[in-house]
Amino acid sequence: MADEDRSPEEEFQELMRQLFGGAGGEVDPEQLSRLSGMQIDPAMMQAVMRQLQGAFSGAEPGGISWDAAKTQALHIANQDGQGVTAGQRTDLDQAFALATLWLSEATTISELPTPPRAITRGGWVEETLPVWQELAEPVATSIADALTATLSEQAPDDMQNLIAGAGRLMRTIGGSLFANQLGHVLGRLSTEVVSGGDVGIPVMPAGDAVILPQNFADFGRDLGIPEDQLALYIATRELAHARLFRHARWLRLQVMSQVGDFARGIHVDTDALEDLASRFDPSAPEELRQALESGALIPARSEAQNAALARLEHLLATIEGWVEVVTDAATSRLPSADRIAEAVRRRRAVGGPAEQALGSLVGLELRPRRMREAAAMWRAVTDAVGTVARDALWDYPDLMPEPGDIDDPSALIARLQARARGEEPAPDEFDDALARLLAGEESPGPDEPRAPGADGSDGTDDVDPGTEDPRPV
Fold first, then answer.
1. Segments forming the whole domain that contains residue 115
2. In total, how many domains does the chain have?
3. Cβ atoms within 10 A of the Cβ of 195, count?
């Protein structure tokens, strides 16, 4: 059949075959123009082609172009200059040096093996992107899967064979749209964060303490606090956060595994996605951007997600509370320490616009709600048992305070005081069963008599025949 004899529907199917069938090459603009009989705007289709070509370029095997996210983030991060001046670097080096001395008086957790440093916004993007990728990948995959499912459901029966081969393409489109939006949000976030530990989770490599001079200047501009005092406080807080994660090497894995527990339950509202796709204009993607940033495509959290979020919030609050208490103790010499602490506390509780957008984009808010209560618990523990016993709680995960300890730290303090006196806590049923297991004994059931010798007796009330009953009459 000659090209001019094809119906609009056949033209569209041929276009889909070229697109999904792996024919390669450019799609003929004249062919696009003949789709006008189907009420498809050729200009819009040309824009779609450009979007698809951009999606394929740089796409990784999983269908998500994280390089595109990095490029977008760096473009925004580097708009206002990339360098750190010699004066900024000197001032922060001096602040870090004094903060190191003060912090060593407030905690027994050791110093960092590598010197802290000042970095640019672009440097922050480069070093933290792997963590953001890990955090966002479940959502990107869910969007890509939803697009593939929606395409399959909406396509006519006679095109299902073609659609079956389009899965990788649709995953690429969905993943690339999300990656571009993630890069946009991370670029904006790079203009807000002041230090490596500013967002609570460990986004920097273990043992790295950094401050972003460009954002530090913006943070202190309206506080009316001398810049040297502000630098000392922020440097001390950043060192405390970095020291903690380097000392408790299990802590990073614990945080990210709990983030993963939450992220695995994320899925996309396919009805909202279909509604958005029905009116999507590739030349004006603002509506899609707003939908992604607002969280409109992510439905309400499940019970399992709420439970995972509660565990994560407890862990982050415990970390933040310890950092606050140690920082306050180390910076007690600063005249403006209380004012700075309150400013940091308010900022941590609210977050900036980009951080809020990130929370909506990945469905996870990184604002622990109980930071003040956790800090009060750590202060009570410090007053009762001192810094050595307090910091030893970070040695192993099973020593960590429970959620109930934040509400009432008295039981935690009692355990620490008993340990300091050399008193062993009374074994519970689990400890007793474990001891019997290690000794090669079987644990008795609830209605079974205890094994002979388990309580120092022979396990029976009978006496040996021929002997006098020793029990009194």
1. 66-312+333-362
2. 1
3. 24
In a domain, 297, yes or no: yes
- In whole angstroms, give the CA distance from residue 265 to residue 249: 26
The per-residue pLDDT for range 297-341, each reduced to its tens digit, is: 676 777 888 888 888 889 999 999 999 999 999 999 999 999 999
Buried residues in 411-443 as b, exposed as e (16+ CB within 10 A): ebbeebeeeeeeeeeeeeeeeeeeeeeeeeeee
Q: What is the pLDDT of residue 279?
A: 59
The contacts of residue 395 (CB under 8 Å, 6+ apart) are 248
Residue-level pLDDT at 430: 55
- For residues 321 and 432, give the distance between their C-alpha atoms in angstroms, rounded to a whole number: 34
User: pLDDT tens across 72-104, in order?
Assistant: 899 999 987 767 888 889 999 999 999 999 999
The closest of 138, 135, 177 to 276, measured between CA atoms, is: 177
Concatenated DSSP letters for 425-448?
PPP-HHHHHHHHHHTTPPPPPTTS
- State the Cα–Cα distance between residues 203 and 200, nearest whole angstrom: 8
Q: What is the rounded average pLDDT of the residues 62-69?
A: 72
Q: Can you say how many angstroms the Cα of residue 342 is from the centroid of all Cα atoms in its chain?
A: 25
Q: Do the domain assignments include residue 403?
A: no
What distances in angstroms separate CA 162 from CA 16, 20, 91, 240, 355, one per listed residue?
8, 7, 62, 57, 41
**Residue 23, in any domain of the structure:** no
**DSSP at 193:** -
